[in-house]
Amino acid sequence: MEGISSREIYSNRWMTLREDVVRHDNGQQGIYSHIDKGDFALIIPFDGARFHLVEQFRYPLRQRCWEFPGGSVPDATGFDPIAVARQELREETGLRAEKLEFLGKFAAAPATANHYGHVVLATGLTEGEHEREATEQDMRAAWFTRDELESMIAENVIVDSHCMAAYLLLLLHERKSATPTPPHA
Q: How open is the CA angle 153-64-74, to the nearest 5 degrees?
């Protein structure tokens, strides 16, 4: 698919909605609408036994949702997932991490948006006061065991696909870390 032209439909400091005229591989033209949006960090706060989640109202779903803390920096020219993770963790939960480890990234909505979620594992946690923005004042936070977290996913209590993708990256990281390296010949 090849882009022929693009026009901005709507824009704010968080996103831009674009409508492009495209040429498909078979030569036919069509329209493709998509969102330009900055990358975000998703933080997995883990104390070795429990995960720290936040719950907030998600307007498009018209419900409160449990998820890992995270966010982005509007109008940023570059993206540093560790710096954003440190800031969002402190703001949303009050937690400070001794260690922040990048686990990987995922395309958040590849058919409709160009942004990536960068997953960061936060360990060596100390608690403090949160520094939530005005729009986050209804946010709640709580600790959950691994069994509780997995049950919440299985029972559709956690419906956020970003949270599930982040948890999968954590599981793969744990598996890789637990696998002994074969000796070199």
A: 100
User: Which pairing describes strands 15-23 and 2-11: parallel, antiparallel, or unpaired?
Assistant: antiparallel
Instruction: Tell me how far apart the alpha carbons of residues 29 and 167 are, in angstroms, rounded to a whole number.
Output: 39
- Are 44 and 68 in contact by the 8 Å Cβ rule? The answer is yes
pLDDT in tens, 81-111: 999 999 999 999 999 999 999 999 999 999 9
Q: What pTM did the predictor assign?
A: 0.90
* Backbone phi and psi for residue 157, each to the nearest 5 degrees, phi listed first: -80, -45
Which secondary structure element, helix H or strand E, spans residue 76, and what is its range?
none
Neighbours of 45 (CB within 10 A): 24
What is the C-alpha separation between 109 and 4, in angstroms, rounded? Answer: 22
Residue pair 90/70 in contact by the 8 Å Cβ criterion: no
- How far apart CA 102 and CA 80 sit, in angstroms, is 10
Span 35-81, pLDDT tens digits: 999 999 999 999 999 999 999 999 999 999 999 999 998 766 788 99
